[in-house]
Amino acid sequence: MVLSGVAVVLLLFTVGGEVEVVFGVLICTILFMPLLSWENSVEMGGLTSLDLVGVIMVILSFYISGLMLLSSVGVKRFNAFSKVILCICVVLVLAFSFSSMFLFYICFESVLIPTLLLILGWGYQPERVQAVNYMLVYTVGGSMPLIYGLSSLYWSGFTSSMTSLLGSLDKSVIAFSWLYVLAFLVKLPVFPFHLWLPKAHVEAPVSGSMILAGLLLKLGGYGFIRLCGFVEFLRLSVPMVVVLSVSLFGGVLTSVMCMRQTDLKSLVAYSSIGHMSFVLLGVVTNVSWGVLGGVLIMLGHGLCSSALFSLVNYMYGVSSSRLISLNKGYLLMSPSLSLVCFLLAVSNMASPPSLNLFGELLMFMVGSVFSVLVLVLLGFMSFMAACYSLYIYVGTQHGKSCGLWVSSSSFSVCSGLVLLAHWFPLNLLFLFIP
């Protein structure tokens, strides 16, 4: 099934039509639907292995890639653009499907190459070179301890297969395990390894922001879930307490910073850091409820954050600015856009029945195991998420707008379909939670 989906995507490289490319990627999403099961795990030839988490990430990769192509149909050099997007999609699918940690690491780092091409080739500001440098230094530098840990584990006589390591490895043989997860802390990212993310989001085109928020950040959470299978994280150990304390406190700080942002893209980018702090708390506890909550938050964040970046791009196309002070009055100009913005804002603040609500509820249950202070930090981050989500809606939809924008402010059918295609699974997938 994995090979068939990848084969279909590779065939799309030879397709020149825009509609065929978009619908071909969406068909690949349907190919993986039969693998959705809470009990089964599919092993294929020892090379690929898919459980529920892997299948969810693969489907999300195909789905977000199709929506990226659909939202960027009018972009310049679309043929080259579609090839870069499909290359990113193939590398991500392989990363979420490989059962070998070495192959996962190769795909984990290889996805940076087409992403950098996307930012450099279709970014629209001269500071994108600096953003690319930040991204390279943080991600590549943070992953060096991981490849050292995997190499030392292999030379010690252990296999590189994730499924084999679960039952054959004594978790105590891996020393300095917190140093090895630095690569995933940077990729999530959590405070203080987040500085590359706002710069990359601000300088990237809309498709780059969608794939950064919707897919690339999920590589960090997915790698944490896989690493927790053969690395022991003691709940009350000093490294765990330090990492969780810094990440949660940093999530609170970045949530407060969202209220001080004047750039819409930067605001949505900083909001991702707080959500990823929830994911880190759930995953490193290595409890079934915590892992399930982390997966739900990753899935909900991938859909909601990608939709918000697409919405910001539409506002930028209307006003030629991302400043909140220059994007006002859409409630009068386009009520349909205001409705979609309201739906996305309330989903971002974890309102029922969005996936973010169920994930955060599970995080509160897991956080109660640690201390009251963890619950206070989680509660404050949830409260600030509601504040900056309402800030996005009120700051852009209310107020008096410039009369020159009215002629160009019609909400296109394609833009509405892209935004609603994010919102519907975000609020309907709760029916499949056991």
Automatic annotation (TrEMBL):
<keyword id="KW-0813">Transport</keyword>
<feature type="transmembrane region" description="Helical">
    <location>
        <begin position="295"/>
        <end position="317"/>
    </location>
</feature>
<feature type="transmembrane region" description="Helical">
    <location>
        <begin position="102"/>
        <end position="124"/>
    </location>
</feature>
<dbReference type="Pfam" id="PF01059">
    <property type="entry name" value="Oxidored_q5_N"/>
</dbReference>
<dbReference type="Pfam" id="PF00361">
    <property type="entry name" value="Proton_antipo_M"/>
</dbReference>
<feature type="domain" description="NADH:ubiquinone oxidoreductase chain 4 N-terminal">
    <location>
        <begin position="22"/>
        <end position="95"/>
    </location>
</feature>
<keyword id="KW-0496">Mitochondrion</keyword>
<feature type="transmembrane region" description="Helical">
    <location>
        <begin position="136"/>
        <end position="155"/>
    </location>
</feature>
<keyword id="KW-0249">Electron transport</keyword>
<keyword id="KW-0472">Membrane</keyword>
<protein>
    <recommendedName>
        <fullName>NADH-ubiquinone oxidoreductase chain 4</fullName>
        <ecNumber>7.1.1.2</ecNumber>
    </recommendedName>
</protein>
<comment type="function">
    <text>Core subunit of the mitochondrial membrane respiratory chain NADH dehydrogenase (Complex I) which catalyzes electron transfer from NADH through the respiratory chain, using ubiquinone as an electron acceptor. Essential for the catalytic activity and assembly of complex I.</text>
</comment>
<feature type="transmembrane region" description="Helical">
    <location>
        <begin position="362"/>
        <end position="391"/>
    </location>
</feature>
<feature type="transmembrane region" description="Helical">
    <location>
        <begin position="52"/>
        <end position="71"/>
    </location>
</feature>
<keyword id="KW-0812">Transmembrane</keyword>
<dbReference type="GO" id="GO:0031966">
    <property type="term" value="C:mitochondrial membrane"/>
</dbReference>
<feature type="transmembrane region" description="Helical">
    <location>
        <begin position="268"/>
        <end position="289"/>
    </location>
</feature>
<dbReference type="GO" id="GO:0003954">
    <property type="term" value="F:NADH dehydrogenase activity"/>
</dbReference>
<dbReference type="InterPro" id="IPR000260">
    <property type="entry name" value="NADH4_N"/>
</dbReference>
<dbReference type="InterPro" id="IPR001750">
    <property type="entry name" value="ND/Mrp_TM"/>
</dbReference>
<dbReference type="GO" id="GO:0048039">
    <property type="term" value="F:ubiquinone binding"/>
</dbReference>
<dbReference type="GO" id="GO:0042773">
    <property type="term" value="P:ATP synthesis coupled electron transport"/>
</dbReference>
<feature type="transmembrane region" description="Helical">
    <location>
        <begin position="403"/>
        <end position="424"/>
    </location>
</feature>
<feature type="transmembrane region" description="Helical">
    <location>
        <begin position="7"/>
        <end position="32"/>
    </location>
</feature>
<feature type="transmembrane region" description="Helical">
    <location>
        <begin position="175"/>
        <end position="197"/>
    </location>
</feature>
<dbReference type="GO" id="GO:0015990">
    <property type="term" value="P:electron transport coupled proton transport"/>
</dbReference>
<keyword id="KW-0679">Respiratory chain</keyword>
<keyword id="KW-0520">NAD</keyword>
<feature type="transmembrane region" description="Helical">
    <location>
        <begin position="78"/>
        <end position="96"/>
    </location>
</feature>
<feature type="transmembrane region" description="Helical">
    <location>
        <begin position="204"/>
        <end position="225"/>
    </location>
</feature>
<keyword id="KW-1278">Translocase</keyword>
<keyword id="KW-0830">Ubiquinone</keyword>
<feature type="domain" description="NADH:quinone oxidoreductase/Mrp antiporter transmembrane">
    <location>
        <begin position="100"/>
        <end position="382"/>
    </location>
</feature>
<feature type="transmembrane region" description="Helical">
    <location>
        <begin position="329"/>
        <end position="350"/>
    </location>
</feature>
<keyword id="KW-1133">Transmembrane helix</keyword>
<dbReference type="InterPro" id="IPR003918">
    <property type="entry name" value="NADH_UbQ_OxRdtase"/>
</dbReference>
<comment type="similarity">
    <text>Belongs to the complex I subunit 4 family.</text>
</comment>
<dbReference type="GO" id="GO:0008137">
    <property type="term" value="F:NADH dehydrogenase (ubiquinone) activity"/>
</dbReference>
<feature type="transmembrane region" description="Helical">
    <location>
        <begin position="237"/>
        <end position="256"/>
    </location>
</feature>
